[in-house]
Amino acid sequence: MNLTELIESRQDQHLSELYEFLRIPSVSAKSEHKPDIERAANWVADHLRSAGFKTVEVIPTNLHPLVYAESLEAPGKPTVLFYGHYDVQPAEPLDLWTSPAFEPEVRDGNIFGRGTADDKGQVHIHLKALECLHQFHGKFPINIKVLIEGEEEVGSVSLWDHVQANKEKLKADALLVSDTSMLGKGVPSITYGLRGMNYYQIELTGPVRDLHSGVYGGAVPNPLTILTELFAQLHDKKQRIAVPGFYDDVAKADREERKALNKLPWKKKDFERAVGAPGYLGEDGFTTVERIWIRPTLELNGIWGGYQGEGAKTVIPSKAFAKFSTRLVPNQNPAKIAKLVEKHIRKLLPKTVHCKFEVLSTGKPWVAPYHDRIFHIAQEALQKGFGKKAVFIREGGSIPFVTQMHDTFKVPCVLIGFGLPDENAHAPDEHLALENYYGGIKSIAHLYEDLANL
Length: 454
Ligand code: BES
Ligand code: MN
Ligand code: MN
Description:
Blueprint: H1 3-9, H2 11-22, H3 34-51, E1 55-59, E2 66-71, E3 79-85, E4 105-107, E5 110-112, H4 120-137, E6 143-149, H5 157-165, H6 167-170, E7 174-177, E8 189-194, E9 196-205, E10 211-212, H7 223-232, H8 255-263, H9 268-275, H10 288-293, E11 297-305, E12 315-316, E13 319-328, H11 334-348, E14 354-361, E15 366-367, H12 373-386, E16 391-394, H13 400-409, E17 413-417, E18 431-433, H14 434-451
Parallel strand pairs: 3-6, 3-7, 7-17, 8-16
Antiparallel strand pairs: 1-2, 2-6, 4-5, 5-18, 8-15, 8-17, 9-13, 9-14, 10-12, 11-13
Helix pairs in contact: 1-14, 2-4, 3-4, 4-14, 5-13, 12-14
This protein binds ligand BES and manganese (II) ion (2 copies).
Residues 89, 118, 153, 425-426 line the site of one manganese (II) ion (MN).
């Protein structure tokens, strides 16, 4: 039996084990799930042990534990660090799931459940690839470090401290990550750029308490109205962000790169089917892929205040809230952008409300050239798993750790995603195509194997 045959003979076993992992509701944002987070961390640690790692640790942090494993028994061979996350986004709204979020099932060739695409399914691809490789050779043919965190969906705060305090331990020749997407079905992809992100929350306070809108309305500030007026001013008619200085440091997109990105087999029809809006908009002068991959944005993510219950309640709320974020591109500086955004918002707000402005997290963008040999090896490994040539793409999502690692160690970061853009990550009915799960295990096993011959 060769390596591919070994992997193929295990498909059912792999899938039922992934189900176990998916059943643990490891939602990092909610403290009620703390025990599930612990369970998921231990589940990963146990499965790293059974994959062949002798050194496996569950490392406590200020918030959620990190799982670390290493096998350094291939002298003279390269060392790779694999990074992923075992935490997931909240499953709400629960009533919009066809089958319950934490009761995985396969329908039409897709595994449905929270975490299938982002990121437990993709982490499991590596666990099983490594396990098969270990069994096939009786050992790992290269040196491997594994770091799986539980705070990715809430900003990777503990991870940063850990990296800074453990640089020697985490050092590697390359970083491997599977937490991104393929360009489309049947198009294996390697991602060489991600946007950075700052996340903000504001709280506006007008009256010291909620007021009867008949008794007071007409003579007092309404923080909800003021909040909506504020957000209405943050983009101009060309869908550019109206914060002075926001674009000052944005790297001018290279003409050759824009040409290459626009030539990719990206399908506008698939994009529009996934979105399903009656119409589309974006920054003037840029194509859709440019808008989502290489241009910065400012998005309102949540807005609340006042009465939202059944029927009517005539009230002027004391407070209004909003959560929003900016996606950043090279060479924007997250701290500088946060200052510009706060300054502009304070300037726009009238004196009739107080504003509490918080930056909940920041993260730098990442783009790197892909001429190192490892990218070629990754392309060949994907060819073995999918029978197709991989393309190089940028993406609009953010993975803070990738930038941190790249800045800290200056090593190639190889991002091989097996999710698809329309698989509902962060939304109800999240799923992962079985074909990409199985193809992923094959590709990744070959990748680790081929890296031994680097
Ligand atoms: N896996 C995603 C990031 C991603 C998605 C990269 C799609 C490329 C394509 C990750 O789990 C995620 O959701 N990241 C957050 C940022 C984090 C700081 C909360 C994001 O991008 O919103
Ligand atoms: Mn993810
Ligand atoms: Mn995510």
